[in-house]
Specification:
rod-shaped; alpha/beta; 5 helices; 2 domains
Length: 177
Protein backbone atom coordinates (compact mmCIF):
# COMPACT_ATOMS: atom_id res chain seq x y z
CA UNK A 1 0.00 0.00 0.00
CA UNK A 2 1.30 3.40 -0.86
CA UNK A 3 0.85 6.20 1.58
CA UNK A 4 1.28 9.77 0.75
CA UNK A 5 4.46 11.30 2.09
CA UNK A 6 4.13 12.69 5.59
CA UNK A 7 1.20 10.43 6.61
CA UNK A 8 1.93 8.99 10.04
CA UNK A 9 1.88 5.23 10.49
CA UNK A 10 -0.62 5.40 13.31
CA UNK A 11 -1.55 1.71 13.31
CA UNK A 12 2.02 0.65 14.08
CA UNK A 13 2.45 3.24 16.84
CA UNK A 14 -0.83 2.26 18.48
CA UNK A 15 0.07 -1.43 18.37
CA UNK A 16 3.40 -0.75 20.10
CA UNK A 17 1.72 1.42 22.76
CA UNK A 18 -0.90 -1.26 23.36
CA UNK A 19 1.77 -3.96 23.74
CA UNK A 20 3.69 -1.81 26.25
CA UNK A 21 0.54 -1.10 28.28
CA UNK A 22 -0.40 -4.82 28.31
CA UNK A 23 3.11 -5.79 29.39
CA UNK A 24 3.04 -3.22 32.22
CA UNK A 25 -0.37 -4.45 33.41
CA UNK A 26 0.83 -8.07 33.42
CA UNK A 27 4.01 -7.20 35.35
CA UNK A 28 2.06 -5.08 37.83
CA UNK A 29 -0.47 -7.91 38.31
CA UNK A 30 2.29 -10.43 38.99
CA UNK A 31 3.95 -8.11 41.52
CA UNK A 32 0.68 -7.42 43.36
CA UNK A 33 -0.30 -11.10 43.36
CA UNK A 34 3.13 -12.16 44.67
CA UNK A 35 3.05 -9.49 47.40
CA UNK A 36 -0.48 -10.48 48.50
CA UNK A 37 0.37 -14.19 48.61
CA UNK A 38 3.60 -13.59 50.54
CA UNK A 39 2.00 -11.34 53.16
CA UNK A 40 -0.93 -13.73 53.66
CA UNK A 41 1.29 -16.76 54.17
CA UNK A 42 3.54 -14.83 56.54
CA UNK A 43 0.64 -13.59 58.64
CA UNK A 44 -1.28 -16.86 58.83
CA UNK A 45 -0.41 -18.64 62.07
CA UNK A 46 -0.72 -22.40 62.21
CA UNK A 47 -3.76 -23.59 64.12
CA UNK A 48 -3.28 -25.52 67.31
CA UNK A 49 -6.74 -27.07 67.01
CA UNK A 50 -6.44 -30.84 66.65
CA UNK A 51 -8.98 -32.79 64.64
CA UNK A 52 -8.65 -35.98 66.64
CA UNK A 53 -8.49 -36.73 70.32
CA UNK A 54 -4.83 -37.77 70.05
CA UNK A 55 -2.33 -35.73 72.08
CA UNK A 56 -0.43 -33.14 70.08
CA UNK A 57 2.57 -31.04 70.89
CA UNK A 58 2.40 -27.45 69.72
CA UNK A 59 5.32 -25.21 68.79
CA UNK A 60 6.68 -22.63 71.22
CA UNK A 61 4.76 -19.36 71.34
CA UNK A 62 5.54 -16.35 69.24
CA UNK A 63 6.20 -13.01 70.87
CA UNK A 64 2.59 -11.96 70.21
CA UNK A 65 -0.29 -13.85 71.71
CA UNK A 66 -3.78 -13.57 70.36
CA UNK A 67 -6.68 -14.82 72.42
CA UNK A 68 -9.36 -16.22 70.18
CA UNK A 69 -11.82 -17.23 72.92
CA UNK A 70 -12.86 -14.56 75.45
CA UNK A 71 -12.04 -15.41 79.10
CA UNK A 72 -15.74 -15.69 80.05
CA UNK A 73 -16.08 -18.57 77.58
CA UNK A 74 -13.06 -20.48 78.93
CA UNK A 75 -13.67 -23.10 81.63
CA UNK A 76 -10.69 -22.63 83.93
CA UNK A 77 -9.82 -25.12 86.66
CA UNK A 78 -7.50 -23.71 89.33
CA UNK A 79 -5.66 -26.25 91.48
CA UNK A 80 -3.60 -25.64 94.61
CA UNK A 81 -0.28 -27.42 94.22
CA UNK A 82 1.38 -26.19 97.41
CA UNK A 83 -0.28 -28.71 99.71
CA UNK A 84 -1.69 -26.11 102.11
CA UNK A 85 -3.95 -23.09 102.24
CA UNK A 86 -6.74 -21.91 99.98
CA UNK A 87 -4.71 -20.65 97.04
CA UNK A 88 -6.91 -22.29 94.42
CA UNK A 89 -9.96 -20.53 95.81
CA UNK A 90 -8.17 -17.19 96.04
CA UNK A 91 -6.88 -17.42 92.47
CA UNK A 92 -10.27 -18.61 91.18
CA UNK A 93 -11.97 -15.58 92.73
CA UNK A 94 -9.30 -13.23 91.39
CA UNK A 95 -9.45 -14.63 87.82
CA UNK A 96 -13.25 -14.71 87.79
CA UNK A 97 -13.32 -11.01 88.76
CA UNK A 98 -10.64 -9.89 86.29
CA UNK A 99 -10.47 -10.68 83.41
CA UNK A 100 -13.67 -12.71 83.85
CA UNK A 101 -12.76 -16.39 83.46
CA UNK A 102 -15.45 -19.03 83.92
CA UNK A 103 -13.67 -20.63 86.90
CA UNK A 104 -14.73 -24.04 88.12
CA UNK A 105 -14.80 -25.14 91.77
CA UNK A 106 -11.23 -24.87 93.13
CA UNK A 107 -9.46 -28.08 94.05
CA UNK A 108 -6.04 -29.48 95.00
CA UNK A 109 -3.49 -31.20 92.82
CA UNK A 110 -2.74 -34.90 93.12
CA UNK A 111 0.81 -34.10 94.22
CA UNK A 112 2.74 -31.10 95.55
CA UNK A 113 4.48 -28.87 92.96
CA UNK A 114 7.07 -26.13 93.30
CA UNK A 115 6.47 -24.34 90.00
CA UNK A 116 3.12 -23.17 88.68
CA UNK A 117 2.02 -24.57 85.33
CA UNK A 118 -0.80 -24.24 82.84
CA UNK A 119 -2.22 -27.30 81.08
CA UNK A 120 -4.46 -27.35 78.03
CA UNK A 121 -7.19 -29.99 78.24
CA UNK A 122 -9.17 -28.97 75.16
CA UNK A 123 -7.45 -28.96 71.77
CA UNK A 124 -7.33 -25.48 70.27
CA UNK A 125 -6.88 -23.54 73.51
CA UNK A 126 -3.11 -23.06 73.34
CA UNK A 127 -3.31 -19.32 72.51
CA UNK A 128 -5.62 -18.87 75.48
CA UNK A 129 -3.15 -20.73 77.71
CA UNK A 130 -0.40 -18.27 76.75
CA UNK A 131 -2.76 -15.37 77.45
CA UNK A 132 -3.55 -16.86 80.88
CA UNK A 133 0.18 -17.15 81.61
CA UNK A 134 0.58 -13.45 80.88
CA UNK A 135 -2.46 -12.62 83.04
CA UNK A 136 -1.13 -14.44 86.13
CA UNK A 137 2.49 -13.33 85.63
CA UNK A 138 4.03 -16.57 84.39
CA UNK A 139 6.43 -16.91 81.49
CA UNK A 140 5.22 -18.69 78.33
CA UNK A 141 7.44 -21.64 79.33
CA UNK A 142 4.96 -22.40 82.14
CA UNK A 143 2.48 -23.59 79.50
CA UNK A 144 2.62 -27.33 78.92
CA UNK A 145 2.10 -27.78 75.16
CA UNK A 146 1.06 -31.45 75.24
CA UNK A 147 -2.67 -31.48 74.50
CA UNK A 148 -4.51 -32.84 76.38
CA UNK A 149 -2.35 -32.66 79.49
CA UNK A 150 -0.10 -35.65 80.00
CA UNK A 151 -1.20 -38.38 82.41
CA UNK A 152 1.72 -37.37 84.67
CA UNK A 153 0.25 -33.88 85.24
CA UNK A 154 -0.93 -33.41 88.85
CA UNK A 155 -4.56 -33.00 87.78
CA UNK A 156 -7.26 -35.11 89.44
CA UNK A 157 -8.93 -37.41 86.91
CA UNK A 158 -12.35 -36.00 87.77
CA UNK A 159 -11.22 -32.48 86.81
CA UNK A 160 -9.71 -33.30 83.40
CA UNK A 161 -12.93 -33.49 81.42
CA UNK A 162 -14.49 -30.36 82.93
CA UNK A 163 -11.97 -27.68 82.00
CA UNK A 164 -10.47 -26.17 78.87
CA UNK A 165 -7.44 -24.94 80.83
CA UNK A 166 -5.98 -25.98 84.17
CA UNK A 167 -3.86 -23.58 86.23
CA UNK A 168 -1.74 -25.33 88.84
CA UNK A 169 -0.62 -22.91 91.55
CA UNK A 170 2.87 -23.55 92.87
CA UNK A 171 4.85 -21.72 95.53
CA UNK A 172 6.00 -19.19 92.89
CA UNK A 173 2.43 -17.77 92.66
CA UNK A 174 1.48 -18.29 96.31
CA UNK A 175 2.41 -14.77 97.40
CA UNK A 176 0.54 -13.01 94.59
CA UNK A 177 -2.91 -14.52 95.15
Amino acid sequence: MNRPAGTPREGGVHAVKAAVVIALVVVLGVVVLHHTTTSRSASTAPSSRASSGAPTTAPAPSTTTTTVVPPASIKLQVLNGTGSGTLAGQWSTKLRATPGYNTLAPDNTTSKVTQSAIYVETPGYLPEAYALATTVGLSPSAVNTTIPAPATAPIPTTERSKANLVLVIGSDLASSA
